[in-house]
Structure formats: C-alpha cells, structure tokens
Amino acid sequence: MSENAIQISNLTVRFGSVTAVDGLNLEVKWGELFGLLGPNGAGKTTTIKVLSTLLRPTEGIARVGGHDVTKEQEDIREIIGVCPQEPSFYPFLTGRENIELYGDFHSMPKKTLKERVDSLIQRIGMEDHANRRAREYSGGMIRRVSTLMALVHDPKVALLDEPTVAMDPVSRRSVWEFIRELKHNGKAIILTTHYMEEAEELCDRVGIIDQGRLIAIGTPSDLKKEYGAEHLEDVFIRLTGKKLKEDV
Amino acid sequence: MRMTRLIALIKKDLKHTVREPAMLFQILLFPLLVTVVFGLAFGAMDSGSTTTFSIGVVNMDSGSEHPEWAGYFVGNLTSLNGTVVSSYDSNATGQVDLLNGNLHALVVLPAGFGASCNSYWLAPLDGNSWTNTTVELYVDSGSMIAGSAVPPMIQQVLLRTLYGETVASLDLPLTIGRPASVAASTFTAWDYMAPGMYAFASIFLVMTVAQTMTVERDTGLIKRMSTTPVTASEFILSKTASNMVLALGQVIIVFGASYAIGYRPETDITGMAFAFVIALVFALTCVGFGLITAVLSKSAEVATGLSFVFIMPMMFFGTFMQFGGLTQSIGAFMPSNYLTHALTTLFLRGASVTTLSLWTDLLVVAVVSILVLAAGVILFGKQIRK
Ligand SMILES: Nc1ncnc2c1ncn2[C@@H]1O[C@H](COP(=O)(O)OP(=O)(O)OP(=O)(O)O)[C@@H](O)[C@H]1O
Ligand SMILES: [Mg+2]
To answer: Using CB atoms, which residue from A52, A89, A105 is nearest to B5?
Structure first.
C-alpha cells in the first residue's frame, strides 16, 4: 500500500480565467481524518472532485491510494467513497434501495450488503424511514442517506463534501461517531465543512484554504496555539479575514 | 463488466417505470389504452369471422300489380351470406334505426318496382318502353366497411332479382379467378391498424429514454455514479437492456390487449416469434434516438419537446396512421414503416416467415437500429465521460 492515502502536489485547477485551486500541496495518511476548511468558493469542492476522478487537474499531480487521478481512475474508483456536496439520489427508490444500489455498484455480496445496510440505517437513526421513497425525505434525511451511499462499501478513502450540512445535532453526532470508526479501521478521510466545532472535535488535522491556496495546516490545537486563539473559528476568521482585507 | 452492477442498474430503471405514474402511463398504460380504444372503435368483436350486415328494407310496392318482384328481391338479399334483413313500414322508421346505428343500410323499394322489372322482361331490347324507377339506398355513414361493402351487394342482389339464378350459372368460355382481395372484405379497419400499433407503442420509448437520461445527467447521478466502478458502457448498456424489457412488455401488452378484444392475426407461432424479434430490434432504434435526444437537450423539458422531432415523423409515416400518396414515399425513410410493413405482411396477409419481404424489412430495421444506437451510444458516452 502507498505510504500516503492522498498525495496532492502543486495541484492547480482553472476554469477559464478562474483559478479554483492554486498550487495546492497536501498529504493525508492512512488512518487520518483531514478537514478542509475555507470560505465559499475557496476551492474545497474542486479539490474533492479532482480526488474523485471527476475533474482533471490543469497542473500538478494528485494520487489516491498511490494511484494517479489522471491515469488510474478505475483503481481509484474501487477504493473511494464519495459524498458530493449536492446529494444525488434516485427519488423513486427508497432510502435503503439507494444505499444498496451503491453497494451493488461495488459488487458487494448480497448477504453482506443487506446486513451492512441494516446496521448502517440503524446507526444513523433512519430505521423508521428507510423504506420510504427518498422523494419524501427532509433535507437532513437525504443527507444522511447520501452519506451512507458513500460509505456503504467501507471505502479505503472517504471523500466527504460537507456531509453533515443540514443535519440536526443528534444526526450529526451519529455521523461523526461513524466517521471516527472508519478512521480507527485505518481508512483515510477528507471532509470539508463550515462547522468549526466539527473540525475541532473530529479532525486530526485541518487545512484552511482560501482562493485555492492553502494558508494554514496543522492539528486544531497547534493552529490555535500558533494564532493565539481560543477556538478554531477565531483562527479561521483571522486568517481568511486578514486575507480578504489585504486584497481590498 | 459486472453482472451485479448491470442487474442493479436495470432493476433501478424498471422500478422507476413501475413506481412513477407518468412513466407507467407513458410506457405501459398508454399502449394498452390506445390498443383497446382503437380496437373496439375500429374492429368488431368477431372480426376474425365474417362480418354481418343488418339491412332494412322498406317495401312500397306491396300493393301493386306485380308484388312478386319485391318478394324476389328480399329473398335474394336474405339468402346472401352475411346479411340480416328486417322490413320496415316506412322510410321514416327505417331512417331512425339507421341513425341510431341499428342498421348498416336501408333499401327503399319504390312503388312501381315490380312494374319496372316487368317492363324490362316484356321488351328486354327496347329501352324506350321500360318504366324507370329508382331504388334508394341509405348506408350508415358511421361505418367505413358498410360504406364500401353494401352498395356492391345490393347491386348484385338487383341483378340476381332481374335475371334470376341463370346469370350466375351461365356457361361462359371465360372464368374470372376470384381475386384474393375479396376475402379482405371481411376485415375490419382495425385489422389494418393493428400491425401499426406495435411501432406506435415503441416510438414513445424515444421520449422516456431521453427524459430519464437527461434527469440522471442533470441531477448529478451519472457524475456520482462515475466515482464508483460503474463504467459509462455499463451504464448505457443497462439503459438499453432495461428499455428492451419495457419494449417486450409493450409488445406483449399490445398483442394481449388486441387478442382480448377479439383480434386474431393470420399467423402461426413462428410468425409471432418473427414479429416479436423485429419489434424488439425496432425498439433499439428508439433507444438510440432517445440517447441522441438526451445529448442535444439541456433539460428534461427540452428533451420531451425535442423527442417529438423523432416521434412525429415515425408516427405519421410508419404506424397505423397511413395516408397513402406522398406520405408513402416519406415512409420509405422511416424505420417504423418497415416494422409495420412486416407485421402487416404477417398478420394481415398471413404470409409465412419464409417470405422474402419480411427478411428485407428485418434487415432494414436492424441496420437502422445498429446505426442509430451506435450514434446514440457514442455521443452520449462522449458527453458523460467529459
Ligand atoms: N464548473 C465550473 N465552472 C466555472 N467555475 C467553477 C466551476 N466549478 C467551480 N468553479 C469556481 O471555482 C471556485 C471554487 O469553487 P468550489 O466549488 O471548489 O468552492 P468551495 O470551496 O467548495 O465553496 P463552497 O463552500 O461554497 O462549497 C469558485 O470561484 C467557483 O465559482
Ligand atoms: Mg463546495
């Protein structure tokens, strides 16, 4: 197995004149939970898309599980689980069927899949709603199902783009619990979030990006120490706020 | 290529069809409805056997000097196969039944009918001495078949009345071979339409394929799927396969519904098998056009509208809606036309599957299907891999 689960070197992504990601360097180890923080439009989703093989880098290299995102897409797709920022699901399928479909995509054995889906649904508090059509779900229910669609096959690398947005505190805690467990099983996880307490409580390390550039990286406690802040939120405001002011 | 993934994707599409009322209607209920409604409207329940015509006769000549001629007429008419004759006291009462659809036709024998016949036999060669009268014939304008079949029947009965049986048994040096088309007079309009129903039902697959593909593309489902091991080819193959299942369902529905209302195609089990095969091959064309429509459409709404660019011409120039003339030459370019032609050959003409034209029809449909489907797969594949 490769040394790093995720290896990003000098990654740049441009959309016409917009530079969404600008010379990003980043490593995520196996068994590490990495949080990507940044204001709207910072380039978080773009980075996740490159790692999920949906976008080709304009420049630079990105590797997932040792595989190059531009050359070994099939290998990467076998080991990743992606929760997109906009949850896509089949409204005419039930929550359970949506999750099972993604298990089938990864050719999980029928019995294993069924047992796993049962336990996942229970853990995330959806047992009363799992057999309802997804079109009837509330925003938070859809998010929870979407997260399970990404994680049903127990991926080696989880790429979660704002997985807990719109969830109530109880649901959010159960998803956190679940993500922590993945990490303990040696899986690598990148998640993006706007919730500072989520990053602080959950992540081993966080990277703060702004305008496509990494402006700070470290454990939440190191970052707080470095910037003399009480909460990660203050670090975030100080860093991105300062940056924004300089630009004006 | 993994079976698990293909089967999961196909199941997903079939659930979509069954669970979404709009899809269910479009794919399965619509063909059922059209078949039953058109079948009942244009075909008699007993369309397999001979059609009988009920004909009313008003005899105004009963009190005349030669009432026996009217008697001969009614006798000849009654003895004709496929007629049920009833008599009426007056034109007015007969007209009421005709308007209400209880009669296919009404014949009014005028006063002087017998005298006319008699005057002919008194001087068969002297037209000036004849007493002329007119037999009035009213035909149910609501019945296409009655309109075409009854007037020649009455003509025949009149001749027989005037000349007697001899005319039919005269020895002549010439014999007229009974043209096969005479048998067609027992067909209903529905018999001509039924073969076109199969193409008609399948054509709407263009729309469903285009709609589901655009929705899956635009809601990010295909993107999301492509972060999993599912390949673009597996996805498109699953779409094609699930629509083949639906097309098979449509063929069974159209066949079952028309059978249930009494339609019996003039073919055997091999003919039916051929019909199923060519109908399914045609459905591939529709899937291909659906994919092309999806590629060209920015949204599901656009796809719905745009799919009619393919649906309309195939419908007007290649299903049961046949108008002859110019449309026939346009039809030569419509794959649906070849399907309908083949099914007409089988179901209506009762041709055996060894008939050459059936195989040229199949060849045309197959070649068009391969080309259209290939174009659709390549274009759509290109679009989603981007
Ligand atoms: N397909 C695209 N075409 C053009 N510009 C794009 C495209 N996708 C993203 N961008 C631009 O790239 C930049 C980064 O976008 P990105 O979605 O990565 O931000 P983000 O950090 O995920 O923001 P958010 O917190 O709002 O989700 C933005 O300026 C955005 O407008
Ligand atoms: Mg984003």
So the answer is: A105
Atom of ligand 1 nearest to the CA of A16: 4
User: Who's near B360: CB < 8 A, 6+ residues apart?
Assistant: none
Strand partners, A191: A35, A160
Q: Give counts: helices (H), strands (E), chain A.
A: 10, 10
Chain B: which residues have CB within 8 Å of chain A?
2, 4-5, 7-8, 12, 15-16, 19-20, 219-221, 223-230
Within A16-72, strands assigned E span 18-29, 33-37, 59-64, 67-68
Per-residue pLDDT of chain A (248 residues; tens, 9 = 90+): 677 999 999 999 999 999 999 999 999 999 999 999 999 999 999 999 999 999 999 999 999 999 999 999 999 999 999 999 999 999 999 999 999 999 999 999 999 999 999 999 998 889 999 999 999 999 999 999 999 999 999 999 999 999 998 888 888 998 898 898 888 889 999 999 988 888 988 999 999 999 999 999 999 999 889 888 888 888 888 887 755 445 44
**In this structure, are residues B369 and B281 in contact, taking their beta carbons and an 8 Å threshold?**
yes
Task: Determine the longest span between alpha carbons in chain B, in angstroms.
Answer: 99
Q: Tell me the CA distances in angstroms from A197 to A169, A205, A220, B10, B386, one per residue in order.
A: 12, 13, 10, 43, 37
**Structure confidence by residue, pLDDT tens digits, B61-98:** 988 888 888 988 898 888 877 788 999 999 999 888 88
Give which of A39, A38, A71 is closest to A190, Cα–Cα: A38
Taking the CA atoms of residue B254, residue B258, residue B263 and residue B267 in that order, the dihedral angle to the nearest 10 degrees is 20
**Residues in CB range of B261: below 8 A, 6 or more apart:** B35, B36, B39, B40, B43, B45
Tokens of A116: 């796993």
Name the token pair of B283: 């459905």
Distance (Å) from the C-alpha of residue B254 to the closest C-alpha of chain A? Answer: 27
Neighbour-count burial of B148, counting CB atoms closer than 10 A to its CB (0-12 exposed, 13-18 middle, 19+ buried): exposed
Strand A67-68's sheet: what is its strand order? A18-29, A4-15, A59-64, A67-68
Residue/partner pairs of B320-329 with CB below 8 Å, 24 or more apart: B320/B38, B320/B192, B320/B193, B320/B194, B320/B195, B320/B196, B320/B197, B320/B200, B321/B196, B322/B196
All domains of chain B in start order, with CATH: 3-44+188-384 (no CATH), 53-181 (3.40.1710.10)
Three-state SS at A14: strand
User: Which atom of ligand 1 is found nearest the CA of A47?
Assistant: 18
CB atoms within 10 A of CB B19: 16
Task: Give the DSSP H/E element, type plus range, for residue A247.
Answer: helix A242-247
Query: What is the model's pTM?
Result: 0.77
